Amino acid sequence: MNRMSRAGLAAVCATSLALTSVAHAAVVDTPVHDRATDATADISVIGSYGTGVFNESAAEIVAFHPATKRILTVNANSGRIDILDAADPTAPKKIGEVSGGENTTINSVSVRPDGLAVATVEPENKTDNGSVIFFDAANPGEVLGRVEVGALPDMVTVTPDGAYALVANEGEPAEDYSFDPEGSVSVIKLPSAVAAATQSDVRTADFRAFEGTLADKGVHIYGQVGDSTTEAQNLEPEYIAVSGGKAYVTLQENNAIAVVDIATATVEDVWPLGYTDRREVPMDTSDKDGTIDIRTAPVKGILQPDSIAAYDVDGTTYLVLANEGDARDWEAYSEEERIKKLGSKKLPPICEGYAGMTASEIEDFQSDENAGRLKITTAFGLNEDKNCYDDLYTYGGRSFSIFTADGKRVFDSGADFEKITAKLLPEHFNTNHTENEFESRSDDKGPEPEGITVGEINGRTYAFIGFERIGGVMVYDITDPANATYQAYINNRDFSVNMEALDDDALTTGLNQAGDLGAEGLTFVPAKDSPNGENLLLVGNEVSGTTTVFQVDSLIEPPAEPAAPETDSAQSSLSKGGVIAIALAAVAACIGILGGIGHILNSLLERR
């Protein structure tokens, strides 16, 4: 889904309050922390910067520039990028900002090692084409230039070789569906210097070649208003990962991944992600049963990832997805409903004998204490011949998954996230990011995994998954993609502070004490690039407006350096052992020579 950072958000979020212009942040006294007994890595919170703005998306996407030790944080509330000095990662501080222009919203930022930074700019009318601005992270006062891209540019990333910037143009419809722009991916050729690209450097990878083919493949095409709406208009690119000359793009609402060839700016494939069968993988379905009840239910979870990351293992690319979930809920169309509403005057019922249940069992299944309040889509599962629902689909997987680059799922974390947080936070299980009500999200995507990134430490690869609702970060070792293992969980949040219960006078103090609320964007900083020489994780938290720095420590010894190969070349370096042997031989030779000289001198003296 397009993030909270939208022009005019203040009018939508009536309860959101800007607290103060004085920056503040808090590392809470006792962060929630857990570590597996056999963990190979651990995580701790070391520093934070706060904007002092509550529930206005004042910290979202984060990027890091190693040369200047600066964090670039998207502040959608101000329509700017905050430039933070992180030379001391325990106390990052704001030193500048970059604006996208009047009446615009910045949604994302990425930076190249030489300092060329690229940011996406959403115009006041989200269905108009957006733009990308360029600036120097080392001297961020002036925008270097601007190019036009597609509608609602939601995410940008610079390719690992620094040659291209890729933009996911989400193309959401107007609330009244008066216009629905096409989703697309912009491929921008970047200059070698720290300078702006030109409009001629921008190409568009669109989906027109797939028209009429995607729904039959299992890609979700729905919610179209009017007969003239195309599949290209229905697709909504969200996030991009890059590997081996390919861009892998999440189409969140469409339950699919698009594969883009970067060199040709062409969409090569679109493949569906499938579902999690909750008959086999349990979850907590009710926010009104008064207890933690993680159990199976006859529904399917739609894998609708927001963020995506990519990594390689022995030449094979794997994609790592945060299965957040999202619904289309506009003025002109809404797919979202609760299970208990099926069979009401406006909705068809659940089919007789569904999941082997009797009529009374179906009635019990639809109660608030069971699955009645679980949010589902009405766009899928309807048996049109019988006019009843013979399958039920809920949003998101409440998990993260690992896929091959051609669409095979090799791992899913299943019910881990709810089980782990239930153990650690039994009084605040599945709570929201603005209050601490027990189980308030059990009926709606649970902890809601949204952000994801990967990093390599001591030869092992780790995934870091951020939770938008309950908050915090999960750490998994994904070195073996098919056998990923839980490592640790940390949440820099004080659950004794309920922001929604505070009056205006107490909001500033409360926000400073609450810690992090609403994890959004995550960036891994390897030790070789970090200010303190340690592996870091940067997290932007949209509700608390905080940018927080975590340190990730390896619990294993680094792999041994390989021994230098032996060679017969006279030019090669000698091993330490060889050098020592030669030195000893030389000493022995010298002793022998000296002995010989002494013997000659003695003989001469005797002759005299």
TrEMBL record:
Keyword Signal listed? The answer is yes
Q: Where is the composition biased (Basic and acidic residues)?
A: 434-448
Under SUPFAM superfamilies, the record lists: C-terminal (heme d1) domain of cytochrome cd1-nitrite reductase
Task: Give the domain of life.
Answer: Bacteria
* Residues passing through the membrane, by range: 579-601
Coiled-coil portions: none
Q: Which residues form the Choice-of-anchor I domain?
A: 56-551
Q: Which UniProt keywords apply?
A: Membrane, Signal, Transmembrane, Transmembrane helix
Entries under Pfam families matching the protein: choice_anch_I (PF22494)
Q: Which InterPro entries match?
A: Choice_anch_I (IPR055188), Haem_d1_sf (IPR011048), Mesenchyme-surface_protein (IPR052956), WD40/YVTN_repeat-like_dom_sf (IPR015943)
> Residues annotated as region Disordered?
431-454
Give the residue range of the signal peptide: 1-25
The family database entries (NCBIfam families) matched by this protein are listed as:
choice_anch_I
What's the name of the protein?
A: Choice-of-anchor I family protein
- What organism is this sequence from? Corynebacterium lujinxingii
